[in-house]
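Q: How do we represent a protein-ligand complex in a form that can be generated token by token?
A: Start from the inputs.
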Amino acid sequence: MARDYQAIVIGAGPGGYPCGIRLGQLGIKTLVVERQYWGGVCLNVGCIPSKALITAGKRLEEIAHADAMGIIVTGEAHADMTKLQAWKNGITAKLSGGVKTLLKGNKTEMMDGSALIVGPNEVEITAPDGTKKRLTADNIVIATGSTPIEIPGFAYKDEPVLDSTKALDLKFIPKHLVCIGGGYIGLELAMAYAKLGSKVTVVEMLDSVLFGFDPDCVKAVQRNLKKAGVDVMVKAKAKGWAKTADGIVVNVEHDGADKAIAADVVLVAVGRRPNSKGLGLEALGVQMNGAFVKVDKQLRTSVPSIFAIGDVAGQPMLAHKATHEGEVVAEVIAGHKVSYDAKTVPAVVFTDPEIAIAGLDEAQARARGPIKVGKVPYGAVGRALTTNETDGFFKVVIDEKTKVVLGVTICGSHASDLISECALAIEMGAEALDIGLTIHPHPTLGEGVMEAAKAALGEAVHILNR
Ligand code: FAD
Ligand code: NAI
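Then emit the structure tokens for the protein with flavin-adenine dinucleotide bound:
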């Protein structure tokens, strides 16, 4: 007997919705079920709104420093949070609506509701009004994403305790924001709010913020955190908070002493956990990898008709990795002989300066064997001077013998946009000369990538080769 659908996708984030679109394009009868956010965390309460806030903070800072270029601003520029939030919400609404338009345009059906997997080929959907419906499908794709981790002493239900969703939706600029966690979210939002006018303190339990990133990048970010007046406490343990007459105090154990930091709100950004519970997976015997759903190279779980993609299927929890996996799964379901075989998932931290990496960083490459490193400062790139953004560097790491590009790290303005060329080079197995001999338009920041590739060969022309 034919089933209701050839595929049911659970969750419409950057994993699920592109999967649904691609399935529609491939002529597969598909239903996408979403319980809260069309576009997922990313479009509604993650990547997009955070980048809007970060950009607003940066623009305000640029205005404050425009006099260096001879632009005189009279009076003091400031952020109007009501207008800023309205602008941000307009962007997320437009993108979320776009997701529905694209699914519809590709003949993929949509349903609002929460899905529970009740059999290898059956899903029960609870609609917002509580009514339940069972539907069958040849394939089920779990794309349910992740949720912020809560820590003892900081319950998100309490008003001054913010998860990233609440922190992105503030109607006021905090006088003093404490960020617990100096990772992606903690530092991106610490910098955004510091630039918008908040006093910020970051509390990180490890001995460095952005632990594991290239130390040269971490140093550059730390310098700017200091410039923005952000206090950073490392090896610090946040223990709880209490109300005071005019706000709260956050209690922290630091350097063997108890400290109380006065604040008005506290953001907890200590990582995210996959949404794998309550989906019916235990009853079906779906194998797990810790809290993540275990998948093979085709993103198939231990139950052959069930797939998992995105945050729920493993690290790195990044939107573009989810999207790529969604597209791979759609093709697998359509019978194409494909599997996940990307060499690199580039990553970007949208701090100031931005950090973007593709492939191996210097330490990882060095541990693997002999390498050459080409490093070029932003200050040596003409375009960086014309935008007055000379902070940072380009670093290209190559295999000493084969000259194949192993990794690129860019720390500086627009690093996020510059890294795609480097990911392409790595995917294609390019050598340093392939980048070095590609004519890059002048004057652009991309020339920094070209020059760093040449520097790795000892052939840079705009810096002295070492
Ligand atoms: P999600 O986006 O989490 O989507 C899953 C969807 O499934 C949700 O809409 C959820 O409502 C739905 N769902 C869950 N369970 C059910 C169910 N039972 N039934 C029906 N629907 C269900 N990544 C980047 O690459 N770049 C960034 O700049 C970036 N910035 C971020 C900033 C913040 C503040 C946060 C929190 C995250 C950020 N991320 C960023 C991470 C990125 O948002 C995630 O990696 C990405 O959203 C994962 O996509 P996904 O499709 O796996 O899951
Ligand atoms: P994270 O893993 O990036 O950072 C969490 C930080 O909190 C770590 O430095 C950790 O040591 C610290 N920490 C953990 N427990 C702590 C405690 N009790 N006290 C103090 N510090 C503690 O996680 P984050 O920032 O919550 O982001 C979650 C994920 O979302 C990221 O890992 C990333 O995958 C994704 N993301 C990606 C972005 C991007 O691509 N630009 C932006 C934002 C999020």
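DSSP finds 14 helices and 24 strands in the chain. Residues 10-16, 33-37, 40-42, 46-47, 50, 114-115, 143-146, 164, 185, 275, 279, 310-311, 317-320, 322, 350 surround flavin-adenine dinucleotide (ligand 1) (CB under 6 Å).
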